[in-house]
Amino acid sequence: MARATTAATGAPFETTGSSEAPSSPTGPRSESARPKPRPAKRSGRKLFAFDRSFERRFVAGADEAGRGSLAGPLVAAAVLFDLDRLTLAARRSLTRLNDSKQHTEAGREELYPLVIRAAAKAVIVSRCVRGIDARGLHRTNLAALRQALMRVAPPDAMCLVDGFRVPEFGIEQRAVVGGDSRSAAIAGASVLAKVARDRFMRRAAERHPGWDFETNVGYSTPEHRAAIRENGISPLHRMSFASIAYTQLDLEGVFDVVEGDELPAGVEDHAYGIETDAARQALMAAAAESEPLSRHQA
Question: Residue 78's domain is classified under what CATH number?
Fold first, then answer.
């Protein structure tokens, strides 16, 4: 085997006893060598691009919060963006805009004023427990979303609703599956609805301290279900459908679960369960003592 020589003199190249393979670095990494955190995903730009794809100046979006909760109001919100007049600063402020469930509470609170500032119009509508139980959850939800859109959308707007269409109201609309993570207008409405409802439930926790509303904001959690076992139901609990969470608690005298096609007198069949006259009367008496969330318009 030929010996290695230097290029300048031809003299043998002196080697050390170490191997020719480079050794791995030792000691702490320098700051420049540390892996840099990935930048936050800029979803807002993608969401606004979706809204612009409809080629309309005005795009309105609507979403709700509280549809699946055991207690508290249902809150719907609508946001209208004037895409022709939306400033670069406003778009940049909403680069983190996404489905409200993808944000922490602090993140939603930070986005809330930014959405209102960027929107041409924004409306928040609430439906109290008494209204939900009198009309049914699905019907109440559709009516709230429809009213919110009617209050923000001009005649030439495109109205986008998360998941399904609402009853016709004379303005073009589209149902967008997964809309709160696809449309900026729907995502903005999602943030407004969620923040407004969470604020209400935290205030309600002061008046109804036994159910941990400041933490669960009315949704079914193990702690919430345990509180119902211990304390019963509050005036803010919905009683118009036989929720699995209730039937599992063996709340005798509140719900009568009926099997078969024949329903006895005084019992109505709802899409969300079986309601009895006794449950309805108990609800109405309890709900009359609670304060419904008033409607807000930004």
Answer: 3.30.420.10
What is the tally of structural domains in the chain? Answer: 2
Q: Which residues are CB-neighbours of 25 under 8 A, at least 6 positions away?
A: none
3-class DSSP assignment, residue 285 = helix
Segment among 13-22, 35-44, 127-136, 238-247 with least mean pLDDT: 13-22
Q: Is the Cβ–Cβ distance between 183 and 79 less than 8 Å?
A: no
pLDDT tens, 194-236?
999 999 999 999 999 999 999 999 998 999 989 988 888 899 9
Residue 91: alpha-carbon gap to chain centroid: 20
Tell me which residue range forms the domain holding 145: 43-205
Q: Which of 148, 180, 205 is the last residue of a domain?
A: 205
pLDDT averaged over every residue in the chain: 76
Q: 298 in a domain, yes or no?
A: no
- 3-state class of 290 per DSSP? coil
Band of pLDDT at residue 100, cut at 50, 70 and 90: low
Question: Which letter does DSSP use for residue 170 in this model?
Answer: S
